[in-house]
Structure formats: C-alpha cells, structure tokens
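Following up on my earlier thread - several people asked me to post the actual chain instead of describing it. Fair enough. Here it is, all 232 residues.
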Amino acid sequence: MKFKIAILVLCLAIPLKNIAQKPAKKIGWKAPVALGLTSLLLYNASSKDAQSTIYRNNFLNFSTKLDDILQYTPAILNVGLGLSGLEAKNTRQDRARIFILGTVIYVGATQGLKYAVNETRPNGTEHSFPSGHAATAFFGATLLAKEYGENYPWIAVGGYTLAGTTAFLRLANNKHWASDVLMGAGIGIASAEIASYLYPKIKLKLNKSKSAWNFEPQIAPNYYVARLNYSF
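Reply from S.P.:
Thanks for posting it. Predicted structure:
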C-alpha cells in the first residue's frame, strides 16, 4: 500500500510541475482551486471516518518526525541550487523577495484559518485545518518549479514529490485530515503564484518612485525578515 501511495505522489507531482512553469503574467488558479474544492468535498464526517479506519488498519504503530524536516526541503533546495550557480529565472535578490512576500501570504492564510476554524486533529489536538506543513512544502515546491522547472523539469518533479511526501506523512502520523493537507497544499501553491505575480508590479512601482526606497530581505534558519527603508 505504501508503495502505491509513493507512485501516486510521483504521478501527482508531474502535472503540478507543468502548471507551475507558466509565466508570472497570469496567476495559475487551476491547481489551488482543484485542491481547495476537493478539500471542501472531503470536509465531512464520512471522509474522516474512512480515514480513521485506514489509519487503524495500516498506520497505527507508525511514527516519524521526518515531515517536520521535509516541509522545508523544497525551499532549502531552491537556496542550494541558487548558491551552486544553476541558472534560475530571477536574480538571487528577487528570489528572496518573492519568497518573503509569499511566506507572509501563506503563513497569514494558514494561521488565520487554523484559529478561525479550530478543527480538531485526528489525534485529538487543536488547530488542524489547514495543514501548515503542507502549505510550507507546496509553497517551496512551486517557487522551485517556477525558477528551475522550465530548464530542469525533474527538479520541479523532485520538489513536488518532497511536498507530496510531507503531506502524506502528516496523514500517516495522524496529525491531519485529508481535507487539511489538500487545503494547505492549495494555499501554498496559490501563495507562490500570487507572490510571483505581484512582486514584479511592486518592484516596478518602487523603481519608478522618486523617493529612495530600499527593500532588504533577511533569511535565517528560524525566521524570515524584510526591512523597508525610506530616505527623504
């Protein structure tokens, strides 16, 4: 069964890679909308009962913390490839700025929904919907696909495979419902799309401004900070 799930994750990664390679002139809504609608369709007692049965029959003694690490691997891979000198779509500075803008969007969306909905997790704890791990992983995978997917398609496939594995492990660890990880994935992809679309417009307006603006991103392992200076 686990082998079948691994094949399914890989099969899903390939079409998501193709969607994310579209230019930033348009926001790719197909994948986020499809994931969001599927999440809402599965947001019911019957689906939760079915998932609980699958968990008891197949993953009752399963436990791993790998998902806590894997959620960041697409973003880490993006940074590593940039440092290696591999050709990307945007400059290193622009990639950092898009990353920070998108992070603000998806963290705000996931945390806001977690506390607004306050869904109970399968293991009985709070704030299940949506999955922050899935949002983080799919956000990073989408940015990775946008930067390198056109010239290096298997990098994009690898990013989405890591994201899909993260989402699956959240289910196998009994930390989330299927509706949680699907909505989280949709939010992550949408946030990357929105940030990639908005950033060039923001950059253009700042460059046209007569005032002296300086936008400086700072990225560390445990936090993301952006400093905006205005000189007059």
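The two ends are 63 Å apart (CA to CA). That should answer part of your original question.
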